[in-house]
Amino acid sequence: MGNLKHYFSLVKFAHTAFALPFALIGYVLGVLERGFDFWILVGILACMVFVRNAAMGFNRLIDRRFDAQNMRTAGREIPAGKISVRAATWFVVLNAVAFVVVAATFNRLTLWLSPVVLLVVLGYSYTKRFTALCHAVLGLGLAMAPCGAYIAVTGTLLIVPVWLSVLVLTWVTGFDIIYALQDVDFDRSQRLHSIPAALGVRGALWVSVLLHAVTAAMVAVVGFSLGGGILYCIGAAIFLALLLYQHLIVRPDDLSRIGAMFGITNGVASIAYAVFVILGLFFRI
After folding, report:
1. What is the dihedral of CA 136, 140, 146, 149, to 10 degrees?
2. CB burial class (10 A; 0-12, 13-18, 19+) of residue 162?
3. pLDDT in tens, 41-50
4. How is residue 12 annotated by DSSP?
5. Residue 60 and residue 13 in contact, taking contact as beta carbons nearer than 8 Å
6. Are 188 and 197 in contact, with CB atoms under 8 Å apart?
7. For residues 11 and 60, what is the distance between their CA atoms, to the nearest angstrom?
8. CA distances (Å), origin 92, targets 43, 85, 268
9. Largest Cα–Cα distance of the chain, in whole Å?
10. Can you tell me the distance from the alpha carbon of 53 to that of 32, in angstroms, rounded to the nearest whole number?
11. Rounded CA separation 178/34 (Å)
């Protein structure tokens, strides 16, 4: 069955830091419009955990054959035998069901949209088999977080959460392309699709740069839409500085810095941005 530590490792629980901070921004935007409800906050946090568990568990489950053949991923829980296929399947099913059940408690719109969310986040795992745009599907899965949280609070959708979702979409797609550089040779050998496999290292890095240029533009758009003051500018500056840092440390002839620290950098960027945006929304500084 696997112990709790193995399941935390299976879903890379720490990577929740990518989308959760943006979900909390969407939540706060909703609270400022409709008021605070403790149980909605608890429900949103639960949904973020359940949907991520389902998505990551499903990805590890259907990719287990490829993971076993890739030296970088052979030690993952399923190919290493730490978690059985049956246990992983039940883990995915239970988390997917829990996500829909909790989403249904918010309002009718979140109930209707919950299967769509699952379709995107679970469907992503198949996309590498037929399209190099798989990175964008991953980005879309995480990008739904701010809109979803806002809808959970208000039952409606306005433009600012949408801008936040575009920001997340381009940010995640860009850094996932960089992360995929580690597997370019393996992907080609297995006929798996990715931007690095299609365009090579240099081409992929340029696509990532262009996507993150759009991300920077969206940071400005969101700030303008929120009437961002000093606190927003501080959060934006930290986020963009860490984004730039990624591109400075990853070069076509040196991919050695892609790995655990790369994930930490993006997690810190997301958390820092969200903290200052939320403080700015409350204190209007």
Report:
1. -160
2. middle
3. 999 999 999 9
4. T
5. no
6. yes
7. 8
8. 19, 11, 27
9. 54
10. 29
11. 39
User: Of 210, 188, 205, 207, which Cα lies nearest the Cα of 197?
Assistant: 188
CA distance 93 to 81: 20
Q: Give 177-180 contacts, CB < 8 A, sequence gap 24+.
A: 177/135, 177/204, 177/205, 177/207, 177/208, 177/211, 178/204, 178/205, 178/208, 178/246, 178/250, 178/258, 178/262, 179/258, 179/262, 180/135, 180/204
Number of other CB atoms surrounding residue 187 within 10 Å: 20
Q: Alpha carbon of 243 to those of 100, 138, 159, 224: distances in Å?
A: 34, 18, 24, 20
Pull the structure tokens for residue 275.
């903290």
Please choose, from the candidates 150, 151, 167, the residue with its C-alpha nearest in 3D space to the C-alpha of residue 236: 167
What pLDDT, on the 0 to 100 scale, is given for residue 5? 67
Contact assessment for residue 193 and residue 128, using Cβ atoms and an 8 Å cutoff: yes
Length of the chain: 285
Report whether 278 contacts 28 (CB < 8 A).
Answer: yes
- Cβ-in-10-Å burial (0-12, 13-18, 19+) of 247 comes to middle
At 24, the amino acid letter reads: L
3-class secondary-structure state, position 200: helix
Q: What's the rounded Cα separation, in Å, for the pair 175 and 247? A: 9
Structural tokens at position 11: 């879903």
pTM of the predicted model over 0.90? yes
Structure tokens at 99: 């996500």
Residue 61 burial (CB count, 10 A): 18
Tokens linked to 267: 């997690």
Q: Which residue has the tokens 């959760």?
A: 20
Six-digit token string for 160: 């600012």
* Residue among 37, 39, 38, 44 at smallest CA distance from 23: 44
User: Which positions of the chain have pLDDT values less than 50?
Assistant: 1
